[in-house]
Amino acid sequence: MAQDELDFRVLGPLEVRAQHLALPIGGLKPRQLLATLLLNPNRLVPAETLVDALWPQSPPRSAVPNLRTYVSTLRSSLRAGGEERILAQPRGYAIVVRPDELDLLVFEELTARARQCRADGRLELTLELLCRADGLVRGSPLEDLPPTPGWAALLRRLEERVLQATEERLAVLVALGRAEPAIAELRELLARHPFREGLCQQLMLALAGTGRDAEALQTFADLRRGLLEELGVEPGQESRRIHAALLSGELPAAEAATAPVIRSAVSQLPPAEGDFTGRQPALDQLTALLQPVSPQLGAARIAVLTGPAGCGKSALAAQAAHAVRTRFPDGQLYLDLGGSHRPAPTGRLLAELLRSLGITDIPGGLAERAARYRSALADRRVLVWLDDAASAAQVRSLLPATSGCAVLVTSRRLLTELPGAHEIPVAALTPAEGDRLLARIVGSARIAAEPEAAATILRACGGLPLAVRIAGARLAARPGWRLGTLAARLADPASRLAELRCGDLDAGAGIAASQARLSPDAATTFARWGLLGPAPVDADTLGDPAAVEDLVDAGLAEVAGAAATGGPRYRLPELPRCAAIAAAPTDPAWVRQVLDRWLRRARAAAAALPVNIFAPGQRDTAPTDSLPRALAWLDGERPALVEAVDLAARHGEATLAADLALALVPYFDLCSHHEDWERTHETALAVAQGDQRAALLRGLGQLHLYRDEYARARERFTAAHELFTDDYGRALARCGLGALARVLGSPAEALEHHQAALTAFRAVRDGCAEAYARCAIGSARLAQHRHDEALLAFTDALRLARLAGDEHRAAHVLHQLGVLHQRQGRPDRGLSCLDEALSVFERIRDAHGEAYVLRAMGELHSADGRRACGRSSLERAVLLYQRLGDRHGEAGATQLLGEVLRGERREALAEEHLRRAVRLWRDLRLPVSR
Length: 930
What we know:
- Among the domains are: 152 residues, Arc Repressor Mutant, subunit A; 71 residues, Alpha Horseshoe (Serine Threonine Protein Phosphatase 5, Tetratricopeptide repeat); 146 residues, P-loop containing nucleotide triphosphate hydrolases (Rossmann fold, 3-Layer(aba) Sandwich); 61 residues; 75 residues, Arc Repressor Mutant, subunit A; 79 residues, Tetratricopeptide repeat domain (Serine Threonine Protein Phosphatase 5, Tetratricopeptide repeat), CATH 1.25.40.10.
- The protein has 44 helices and 17 strands.
- The strands form five sheets. It has a six-stranded parallel sheet, with helices on both faces. A three-stranded antiparallel sheet has the order 1-2-3, with no helix packed on it. Strands 4-6-5 form a three-stranded antiparallel sheet.
- Strand 16 and strand 17 form a beta hairpin.
- The relative contact order is 0.04.
């Protein structure tokens, strides 16, 4: 050994020798680091992979600096003759070893030469080479180091290669007529690997070759019993053939005396990804399915992985296939069916499978090839992986007929018509899984430095592993880029797929291939879908249910739950949506058609909701649904309805944008969806004109009032009043100004506005609006302590609301009557009114109304000496006000709750609530004790 040469050993305890002397590699972490590098000799190992190997559970915050320290320590230990053994690269580190310096590389070179010699019939040289390889094995690989998940797959493959070399050595030993020394070692190996039939077959033949037939038969019996008890399967065809020949006495003497060199089973599995991330539930389900089963169960197990292009089906399949390969000792077949681009003909696929099984006389006809294929797999345990299937029809002829085999299929299309198949949909990565994968590629330090940009990138990638891998590769290749740079480049959906390309990786290639195979109707529907937003929609919105189902089958769309009507809703996953946007046509007629449909449906649903006098047109449509069904539909379609307003504004449909936004006011108001209310109104306001613009301003004023933004509310109400062209519209604006004045403690000003509005409402004989105005007048009178006038106004308002069938307005009036009765010393009548109002508000899901009534009930109970009841009602009211973001209501209810707690002598808790109330009033710039 030259002075600068080292001897690295991993086939047993980790050792490094120089000039036959062991080098001290101190510390567990440096030894784990060295082992990880040696398992990947002369190859870059990403820093993230090294961190995972050293800290498999939870890396410390200082993991990367610690890693650099360990690398430096190793460099000092391994530096011989001035040569640097560990090289630093932008993404990680690599160890430099020559072929004769690492026992693993020497072992692989010796076994490869041995196989070539065996094929040439040079058995003595074969045995010599395999004995030299065996001499390198000092125990289990890296047996002195604790196991780490990052090594698991590599070590399993390494142990398998060592065991295969041992089998081949023993087979050659027997073939050379030296059966006796081989028998003891075969027995020992079989005890450690009881289901490895190749070992059993060699032992049976070796025993028979030395005249020990009874022991050979017992060996088979032990194998059969173990397989049946543990796995529920019979021994394979070759084992049964040898057993039958022994029973009949027809085992050829030459075969018994010179057991043949074991034939290696075909193993065509593509490599598993070293940085495979997440998917544990799907992986567990898949590995449980993929196993040979009892012959009584008939057909082979079939597992089908389905999902869109780039979702990681093949990566998951590879991970599962390698995990279960030892269950299929007769081989593992892999076949690319080409379904994404150009599906391969079944005849050609069958010929390829037959050649893989060693059959050279390929029949000419399709049926004959299929029969020969099924015969070749009969009574054998083989895993068949059919990747990228185009259809169930393409797969059927490639299925084994017996239960000893299992089939793994990946496809972008649903293959529900495949009998007996277990479908496993492959979903997008979770945010946590995507974050881990991106960190493994670009380094956790860069992710930690820009977590928001990383989250934006992952959202833009739609959780697809391929897209995340491409984004990571681009960042890794550009260490000077900030993550925010790539996030900005991915922001535009129309150009995003062009950014998600790196080398031969292209996130859009699979999507484009799926698009190319669409029918004309499905292609048109897909492109039109790009005109809509990301919210789920039902098939009727798109106008062609059959085409939508075709898109689902092609993996370009997915079911996103059920609509309130009972049918499914659909969505485009993020990257297919980008492709649809890029292909979207200019089609104003279709856009108007979609918007008209949304408007009709929104108005029909709103008609079933409580009357909202500030939503023009609500009462122009007759209700066609019950309140619960209308609310269920609106809840389910809310994201799509909000997107529809954006769509209308984007395409210059100003009238439709405003109509849609205003049609949704009763729903947004009732259910307190304030953010959606603001977004739709601001969007429509940007393009609206005339009275529609005035109505939108009036709605935004109401929203500002709910949010205690009083200056903005006055500004919007005043602008609406000036812009309306009719008395009725101006009256609606004055109602807003009156409500604002009452909240700000100016009941006289409020009274003036509401009386003017009442005159306009009476002129057009609008009973609902008149009931609203009279109730508001009563509230102003109540604030002025003019109780008799307030009672008269409330009584008239209640009569009008009930005549109009407006139970929602009636409940508001009952709430005010309850407060009035309590203040006039009639608590029982007050509580009766409040109970009736609360029942209505709860039934129609008016959380704001509930909060108002609960606050009034709390005040009434407390004044009547029932503090516990009062405290319970006020606590519920405070929680509701907090959920709604109503700081004005929360301040009043919190102050009352503090006073009740003080009455209960719970001073500390009372002070806490009273201090909070003071802070809220101060934030609102209003005096305490409203």
